[in-house]
Amino acid sequence: KKKYPIISDVDDEKLDACCLTEYHPLPGIPQGQIIKITEINTYLTLGTDSPSKNKAIVLLTDVFDLFSGDPIASSVLENVPQNPGEKMCISTKIRLAGKFLTSFAPWLFRHRQAVTLPIVEKFFKALRSEKGVTRIQAVGYCFGGLYALLVGNGELHLADVIVGCHVSLVNKTHFEQLQVPAAFVCAQEDNQFTDALRSEAEKILARKLDISSKFLLTEGTVHGFAARPDPNNPVIMKAFTQANNFIVEWAKAYL
């Protein structure tokens, strides 16, 4: 059976409350269950079709979930522009600067790569050794996008296919080290994954003739749209649907 694990730190048999109340809830009813993999509470849904047997899609989330009960507070998004071209007022800029110094920078240190990567490695290895998974697609959003790239590099090679959605904390070296088919969902305006970095990444991967790569640039979007869309915004929801379809198509082609 195909597994779609979402690494999570919820403590009961339901989704973390922040996913349902502090953001725009999407329509639909969760169909999965919470199980433990390497002591990590993991939201799991199963596929039933034969081609998906022994395959898994792992969703690596942004900074607002997981992290052993220590996610970034969603209040950091207050008054942040939701559409390309919008400018932040001075008071919002000052507030964000203060949040970065007092909250975000210390959080990044607590969850630096030396801390987070071993957890990700252990999880991916357990999927193969304990759950019988033979092929894995890693899908990373924002912070998780970095780890999608890392598990797809030549040194670790823990994933067979990757997709990055408005990735952050990455540089050109991460793309140079990729050794698996890689696709990227990009926002029209993204100060985390800039036009310049995206262009450089495209050039790097275009030179890798032995692996497939593709970039989807969505219109009317800013960083975060693929993870936390506003269901009342038709432009964002169109892009959100595009992103999900893109992930599925990449899995069908390479997973």
Automatic annotation (TrEMBL):
Where, by residue number, does the polypeptide cross the bilayer? none
N-terminal signal peptide: none
Q: Which SUPFAM superfamilies match?
A: alpha/beta-Hydrolases
Q: Which molecular-function annotations from GO does this UniProt entry contain?
A: hydrolase activity
Q: Name one Pfam family in it.
A: DLH
Dienelactone hydrolase domain sequence ranges: 125-254
Q: What is the protein named?
A: Dienelactone hydrolase domain-containing protein
Q: What is the organism of origin for this protein?
A: Rotaria magnacalcarata
Q: What is the lineage of its organism?
A: Eukaryota, Metazoa, Spiralia, Gnathifera, Rotifera
